[in-house]
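Technical annex B. To support the medicinal chemistry partners, we prepared a structural model of the target in complex with nicotinamide-adenine-dinucleotide, based solely on the information shown next.
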Amino acid sequence: MDSFKEVLTRLDLKENNDGVTDGENWFGSGTQVPVISPINGKEIAQVKQGNQKDFERIIQSSVSAFRQWRLVPAPRRGEIVRQFGHALRKHKDALGKLITIEMGKSIQEGWGEVQEMIDICDMAVGQSRMLYGVQTHSERLAHRMFEQWHPLGVCAVITAFNFPVAVWAWNTALALVCGDTILWKPASPVPLTAIACVKILQQVLRDNNTPAGIATLITGRGSEIGDLITTDRRIPLISYTGSTRLGKHIGKVVGERLGKTILELGGNNAVIVTPSANLKLAAQNVLFGAIGTTGQRCTSTRRVIVHESVFEEFKDILVGYYGKVTIGNPLDENILMGPMVNTKAVETMMTAMDTIKQQGGRFIVEGSRLSGPSYPGGCYVKPAIVEVEPDLPIMQEETFAPILYLIKYKHYIKEAIKIHNSVPQGLSSAIFTENLLESEQFLCTEGSDCGIANVNLGTSGAEIGLAFGGEKDTGGGRESGSDAWKGYMRRQTNTVNWSGATILAQGIKFD
Ligand code: NAD
């Protein structure tokens, strides 16, 4: 196993790192902060954060780079993104390890996150030749109507701690082929992976003689740097991933200046298990959904709604699987569940479990803090399963921890869907059934109200090929595949008159 230091060295990181770049130089005039690994509670390195002055420097660089970058033909921009994907392939091992060291997810998931970055680069390369606008027939004689998609400007990407780099890459790969420049503010617990990724991208950009300022970065406190970003009219698009509470604030601030947002907020995802379901398959998927990333995915499975006729059998299979989960150092490939991101996250889980008990939840597997030599640093927990009534108040909230609620339904699929849709969030959902009619009911207009609805696979682990995002309190944003690229461009409707005469629409006479 590489030491933390070896991983840092492989990614051109040091004990002290500048946490701001204008695309060319690295600096940081704000506070110097330690970065702590949840694996052992020890310092990995230090980062000099940015301040208001640094922000001004990088926004100017980003605006100026945009003026040139937007003129580069889109397929050429795609070629540069292809090279970035290639560079990520070379650094996959070290980057995956750094994600694990900094954030605590299992190494399999760390490598998976880097693979997701590579995948989106591959997709963006193809997309760079498919920035299609439609055309239609004009109602006027000898007129032609069509639409074009133009680059938008500086795209600010504010990301959450749980996907330290993939969310930035989803935005960056598409925004770059669309002709935008990127200004990134990563989450405070995970600045090192951000610095490493921007360095890799900057090298590719330099090799292609592009203007400086295409990929900028500023680390710092959300309340300070985040506010500078969201209020700045030079940034037409804010792509924000994080909690619903902050997402509502950001939506308001950016809406005030009529800026664009892509909001990817909290989830409260459920799985329905019907009498015809393959219960082993359902339990395996629920297990990965609930304890993957130690319950800290926006798409984590938080609720399972099970028909009473199969409830006990499903519960027994699931509890059996929970008993086999290996918890410990996530750099060890045999470990399924690493630590939570920090001790504050552990506190949140413990407080939620107290509330669940007060509200009448019955623990089947009681979660707890884990301590002892195998669990240094104070961030390791045992995941919990709790049986609850559908109206348990705390279940309306997203508790970002490995706590799984089991709920019984008695009669028809409509009852299960009603329970399923009864929370404010609407990100990801799944049904396990071998009954075609139930599956179609789940997917129809009256079915799941989420942005993602799966049949016979779990709520987490989306592919990049289609749009990712959710409804209701999840914010409505879409990223990744399908036509999500349109969010990074401005649409222009064009009409060309080649008749030589003035012909007004709607038959209006103005002679
Ligand atoms: P968070 O809301 O605490 O922070 C997210 C980001 O916002 C961080 O970079 C933070 O520094 C920044 N921030 C803080 N104050 C700000 C302000 N005033 N203005 C602008 N930015 C500010 O979230 P977190 O704890 O890092 O991540 C967990 C949350 O993210 C969960 O709710 C999870 O569901 C959500 N999430 C959603 C998706 C999705 O795609 N829907 C993906 C990943 C995570």
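Notes passed to the chemistry partners:
Residues 158-163, 185, 187-188, 222-223, 226-227, 230, 241-243, 246, 249-250, 264-267, 298, 398, 400, 427, 470, 474 surround nicotinamide-adenine-dinucleotide (CB under 6 Å).
Residues 233 and 257 are 7 Å apart (CA to CA).
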